[in-house]
Amino acid sequence: MRQARSLQGLQPARHAALGTIRRHCTHPARLCRLQQRCRQLPAAVAAAANTAEATADKRPRPKGRPSKRQQAEEEEPLQPPAEEADPELPTPLDYQQTLIKSFTIGGVGLHSGEYAFVRVRPAFAGEGRYFVRVPPGTNGNRFVFDEGRYDQKNEIPVEEALQVEPESPELEDAKVDWYMSYLEAQEHEGFVGTFNEYTQVQVYAGELDAKLRRAMLDIPDDEDDEPDVEPDLSVELEEIVPLDPDDPTLVMANISSVRMLGLPYTQLGEDDNRVMGVELLLAALEASGVDNARVEIEGGHEIPVLDNSALGWCIDIQCAGLRPAPVQDTDADADDEDTIVVRRDLIRPSEAVAVHDAEGWMTFIPSNFTKLTAGVDHALTAPIIGRQWLTWSSDDQHFRYTLAPARAYVESIEELFALRNAGFVKAGAENLFLIAAGDKWWDPDVVRMVYDEPVRYKLSQLIGNLSLLSMAGSQGLPVGHVTAYNANPSLQLSFAQQLFGSLKEDDITDFNDVLEKQQEFWQAKYGTAVVDDMERMDSTSVGAAGMDADSGGVQDVEAEVIDDDEEDETEEEEEEQDAY
């Protein structure tokens, strides 16, 4: 584990060399409409468990929110949350990565209306991203969602159900006190989560009695009652299930798995071995740098819709964390100080490609930089949307903030009804679509990005469909400039097929080769000063695997592992220099 953590520790140096900022989730809780998992609960629980001695000397918590005078009299004022408590934003690197641990999501498919459990698990280097079906009961118990049970035998009259039993003054005071404490933790301590999660943390920290918590949350009081899901305090690497090419349910997440076009979503496979609505999940995996992942599906054939954006997937990926994708046949007797990393290939098509249909078009122009430009035009049918254009690059602010929160949209309520009549959107549309109504939104509260959310959703959808160009853990997004105008999923997939068919053997390259081309571009445009900065960036990169010219295979290269003590000394020296 120390090896993987050390490799991940190289990311700040690469961010500094690239001139980008390593951002952490500081999104205000009141603005995030999804379940707040930006700062994962296990980290908070672990922090509370590790400070058991400190809590012994901690003074009792005052009731309610402290006044300004009380805050001024505090001997130890509240400090801002430590930066280390935030999961690092996952980013693509020049070597293949996978998840540290898996996560499970359960939900309803938007178009099929079927309930499914999806578990995203780590995978070996070179396996890429793929889907498999698992028997019922495999992963369902990993996801807990209490939606209540309707028992007709125990049904009671409505009048009786509406009667509220009065609570004791002590219990009411406890609810108020702990809820004010919860608000204080959100504002001053950076806690992100529900009141239920906050009280669970306090129980494990020894500050709240479990029986009192159950009473406050109206949970049946039972001496043998245990929480449904124990907090995961471990940081051990999860065991990887290798890819089985003979698995009849295997569906690879690449362009060759596209069997049907003309749908309002992306479908891989066919018949009973199909996977529907994969574009937003794949967009989050591609933009976050998860090059290899095993996605297990239990139940329905469609990926859960969540809130019809990629934000929920991005948050779970961020909480799971990334590590270098291990090689399956690694020698068990290898030195512990050596970690094998596999180079992350890139595709740089050398030919321009263009496709179009009756409503839109897409083009690819060869370039040394990866850029995506999307445009939508609904000026006549939906003035509130109008004409929107936006260009996104992986060097911009992280996908999790710029594109992932954008929801799908329709240009009118009639379009939504037409989809429904055609057999789609069986799960309903409430809080899942931005519905245009002339020069205003049908429900303005659903809008997250006031000026250009529709085009941002198009870019998120485009990233997911272009990720199907990935081969054996390579980057899916092509190196070049892709432009899409009024491109629906069918046109995007047709474009990806055409672009894949135009690839030549020389179009498969790596990070270092692209970097050299970029250096030549900067030198021709700005001179040698910028090139010197780029060379310093190159010197900080991790030594990744090279391509064997004879066999065309990947050569494993040993990456240097930085000692933790040396890292601490380096950080102390940098802090002293900054202070000076």
Strand proportion: 15-25%
Number of helices: 18
Please bin the fraction of helical residues.
25-40%
- The side-by-side strand order for the widest beta sheet comes to 2-3-8-4-5
Question: Which regions are unreliable across 5 or more consecutive residues at pLDDT < 50?
Answer: 1-84, 146-159, 222-234, 331-337, 539-566
Average pLDDT rating: 74
β-strand number: 21
Distance between the termini: 35 Å
Shape: globular
Give Rg in angstroms. 26 Å
Secondary-structure class: alpha+beta
Q: Specify the biggest β-sheet.
A: 5 strands, mixed
What's the structural blueprint in terms of helices and strands?
Blueprint: H1 2-8, H2 11-18, H3 41-50, H4 52-56, H5 68-73, E1 97-99, E2 103-108, E3 115-122, E4 129-133, H6 158-162, H7 169-188, H8 195-205, H9 210-216, E5 251-252, E6 267-268, E7 275-276, H10 279-288, E8 293-299, H11 311-320, E9 322-324, E10 339-341, E11 346-347, E12 353-356, E13 361-366, E14 371-378, E15 386-393, H12 399-402, E16 408-410, H13 413-421, E17 433-437, E18 440-441, H14 453-466, E19 480-485, H15 489-501, E20 508-509, H16 511-526, H17 528-539, E21 557-559, H18 564-579
Parallel strand pairs: 4-8, 14-19, 16-17
Antiparallel strand pairs: 1-9, 2-3, 3-8, 4-5, 6-7, 10-21, 11-20, 12-13, 13-19, 14-15, 17-18
Explain what you see.
The chain has a 5-stranded mixed beta sheet with strand order 2-3-8-4-5, with helices on one face. The two termini are 35 Å apart. The chain is of the alpha+beta class and 580 residues long. The protein contains 18 helices and 21 strands. A hairpin with a 7-residue loop joins strand 14 and strand 15.
